[in-house]
Design a protein that fits this description.
77% of the residues lie in helices and 8% in strands. The protein is α+β, with helices and mostly antiparallel strands and 428 residues long. β2 and β3 form a beta hairpin.
Length: 428
């Protein structure tokens, strides 16, 4: 549109310039032609006045005025010839020849005596001056007619250019309106598209916020349940064992003078209680975070987790490791262990499976974890909404990976987690 506006301004300037040039040329031609006519008329009057003046001494003054008028007429006529078109130029050249002949006719009268002027002036004016002047005036009229014709033609050409300019403006207006409508349509479409995308993004953000809130509540509940479980274990098991151990020590204090066999028997009983307390503390610590995860690596921790889960729930867990898991960064090992732990917990609660398979594979540098069961499957309504699955997905996303859930809701379920090689490097 800016280019069209610039082109329009240029065309308007050119049209205005052409109109100004035509008007200027016409006024200049009309002015020069009027000067030629006036000069010819004045020259005729000066010749007449000179012939009627009986004073011989006035000849130089009349001759000077006539020559000055002739020069003015010749100058204006030359300007006309210079700026005229071909038809006008031919007529003007003929007119110039006629004027030169006219000027030559007037030259001898300045040598006449008063008697010759008195004798020949009337005849000279009537037969020489008046016909020549009339011929010049007639030629001037012809030239004027040619000038007017040329002006009419030029004005017609200007009118055509104006019509073309108006047509150009109309086409430009229609093109601008069409372009504006197109821009408006595209802008409206884009705004609607952005509004829809923004609405969808808002909905996704609300859903994500809801899931995160649910996950946070679940984590808080899990933390409280874990604290409750630890507190119960400490109170029921460790507390009772320590209480029993204290009672054993009191008994030993009373039996310090008893036979050695009886005293040694009570020491063995106290030692057994102490061993049970130590084992309970170890079990609690292993439940919070297996020390073997830091000491022996992820592989050993996963094998221990599979054995313990199978023993507690009477549900066999088949662990297949086709990847090197011991050289991973600590945060990757911790998250993978928690993913397996959460998946096993979900299977125990919901799947009603008879067996669970866990596979770790290395594919082109990417680490893939596949957890499958032969239970009732994962309902479609729970995919992406279950808090356990949300927690697993968040841990996978934290590692730069992805989680995919496959299940028809009837026969078994599968969780596939892929961690790219570059993600492992970043995590490291």
């Amino acid at each position: 549109m800016a280019a069209a506006q610039i082109a329009t301004l240029r065309r308007a300037e050119q049209l205005n310039k052409a109109i100004a040039e035509v008007n200027e040329a016409y006024h200049r031609s009309a002015r020069n032609l009027a000067e030629v006519r006036t000069g010819s008329q004045v020259t005729s009057l000066l010749v007449r006045d000179y012939l009627l003046d009986p004073d011989r001494g006035s000849a130089p003054e009349y001759r000077r005025q006539i020559i000055e008028r002739q020069k003015q007429v010749d100058r204006h006529l030359a300007d006309l010839i210079h700026s005229a078109a071909e038809p006008e130029k031919t007529a003007l050249i003929d007119m110039q020849k006629e004027l030169n002949a006219y000027w030559a006719t007037l030259e001898p009268v300045f040598e006449w005596t008063p008697q010759e002027k008195l004798a020949y002036s009337h005849a000279f004016l009537r037969h020489r001056v008046v016909p020549k002047r009339a011929a010049v005036m007639s030629m001037a009229s012809d030239v004027e007619e040619l000038v007017n014709t040329a002006l009419a033609q030029q004005r017609s050409a200007i009118a055509e250019r104006e019509a073309g300019f108006h047509s150009y403006l109309m086409n430009l207006l229609l093109a601008s309106i069409g372009l504006a409508l197109l821009v408006a349509f595209l802008s409206t479409y884009r705004v609607i598209h952005l509004e829809r995308a923004n609405a969808q993004q808002h909905v996704r953000a609300q859903q994500a916020e809801t899931r995160m809130r649910q996950l946070s509540h679940q984590l808080v509940r899990a933390q409280e349940e874990e604290r409750k479980s630890i507190s119960r274990e400490l109170h029921d098991e460790i507390g009772q064992m320590l209480t029993g151990l204290r009672m054993e020590f009191r008994s030993l204090a009373r039996l310090h003078c008893a036979p050695a066999e009886q005293f040694q028997s009570r020491i063995e009983q106290g030692r057994a209680v102490l061993d049970q307390a130590v084992q309970s503390v170890r079990d609690i610590a292993m439940g919070l975070r297996p020390s073997m995860l830091d000491d022996l690596g992820l592989e050993a921790a996963l094998r221990w987790q599979a054995r313990e889960f199978g023993r507690r729930h009477d549900l066999p867990v088949n662990l297949t490791l086709n990847a090197d898991l011991n050289n991973l960064p600590d945060n990757v090992k911790t998250n993978l262990f928690r993913v397996v732990q959460e998946a096993l917990t979900n299977c125990a609660r919901h799947s009603k499976a008879s067996a669970i398979d866990i596979h770790f594979d290395q594919m082109g540098g990417d680490l893939r974890l596949r957890i499958e069961d032969d239970g009732v499957g994962i309902p479609q309504s729970a995919i992406g909404k279950g808090l356990g699955l949300i927690g697993i997905a968040e841990r996978a996303r934290e590692l730069g990976g992805t989680m995919e859930v496959k299940s028809d809701g009837k026969a078994g379920g599968r969780i596939l987690i892929t961690i790219p090689a570059e993600a492992k490097v970043v995590c490291a």
